[in-house]
Specification:
Blueprint (H helix, E strand, L loop, with lengths): L5 H8 L7 H5 L4 H14 L8 H4 L8 H13 L2 H12 L9 E9 L8 E3 L4 E10 L5 E4 L3 E2 L8 H14 L8 E4 L6 H9 L3 E4 L18 H4 L4 H10 L2 H4 L6 H17 L5
Parallel strand pairs: 1-6, 6-7
Antiparallel strand pairs: 1-3, 2-3, 3-4, 3-5
Length: 273
């Protein structure tokens, strides 16, 4: 199963990946290793179940451990994030930034590990992650996932800064951008962070957290807020990657890297190459 073509992997992904010595020593083409990593992202299979025989020639073949070695090294040096920010910078014209959507997502975690906690609504241990997507539902940024027992506003100032930093690294200006968020994000600290970045916050009012709304006026654009439905489109696209549907990674950095890879695939599909 081909997730991305050889041409797209070589043109859009490989230029941002560090090249270690192991692949070159055995004469293995890196695009094949990336293809197998994307196969695992799409299918959610165990690493040891990777169909390496289908992706490598008999005389130039790595075992699944060799594929995992490259995957781990690229996580360690931040290559997958570099791929994403590099593509964002080069193909920002394909994005619809007339508004961006902020949302959180809870994912069941089966193997335990970092940043996992019990979430009653999911009746299990989960990880909570915050996302930004564009006005068509294309994911733009993800913050470091947090334990599932935390609500969306947990450490929101730090996590929102992390979300914005991905776009800043990609050279995408935030001044004047409209940001949609539901009432769960209605907090003074987030409003202040948006003001500091000159982001126009369109956050639905939560009367339980704002007792003085009857006397204080705050602009809220209901027509703009209706565009939040694209968040569901983003969730559906991400759920198509089975490795993201349920978390099995014990290290939060590995879980985060899988998201940047999924973002990369979704954007690469829009690029003619």
């Amino acid at each position: 199963m081909e997730v991305l073509s050889k041409d797209k992997i070589e043109a859009l992904i490989l230029p941002y990946l560090s090249e270690g010595s192991r692949g070159s020593e055995v004469g293995v083409e890196l695009w094949r290793i990336v293809s197998l990593i994307l196969y695992r992202l799409k299918t959610g299979c165990q690493w040891r179940m990777l169909p390496v025989d289908l992706f490598f020639e008999a005389e130039k073949k790595l075992k699944w451990q060799g594929v995992y070695y490259h995957y781990r090294e690229w996580i360690r040096d931040g290559s997958f994030k570099k791929v994403w920010t590099g593509l964002l910078q080069s193909y920002c014209h394909l994005l619809d930034l007339s508004s961006v959507q902020l949302d959180g997502s809870q994912t069941l975690a089966k193997n335990g590990g970092e940043h996992i906690g019990y979430q009653g609504r999911k009746a299990g241990r989960t990880t909570n992650a915050l996302f930004l997507c564009d006005n068509e539902g294309l994911p733009l940024s993800v913050a470091t996932p947090q334990s599932g027992h935390h609500h969306d506003l947990h450490d929101i100032q730090e996590l929102f800064e992390e979300l914005c930093s991905v776009l800043t690294e990609a050279g995408i200006p935030l001044e004047g951008v409209f940001l949609n968020a539901d009432s769960g994000f209605d907090a003074e600290v987030l409003q202040k962070a948006c003001v500091e970045k000159q982001i126009e916050a369109n956050i639905n009012i939560n009367p339980r957290n704002n007792k003085d709304h009857n006397t204080e006026y705050r602009y809220f654009d209901e027509e703009l807020y209706k565009k939040r439905f694209v968040v569901e489109r983003m969730n559906a696209w991400l759920d198509s990657f089975k490795a993201l549907l349920v978390r099995f990674e014990t290290k939060v950095g590995h879980w985060l890297a899988l998201h940047f890879l999924a973002f990369t695939v979704l954007l690469c599909r829009k690029i003619k190459c």
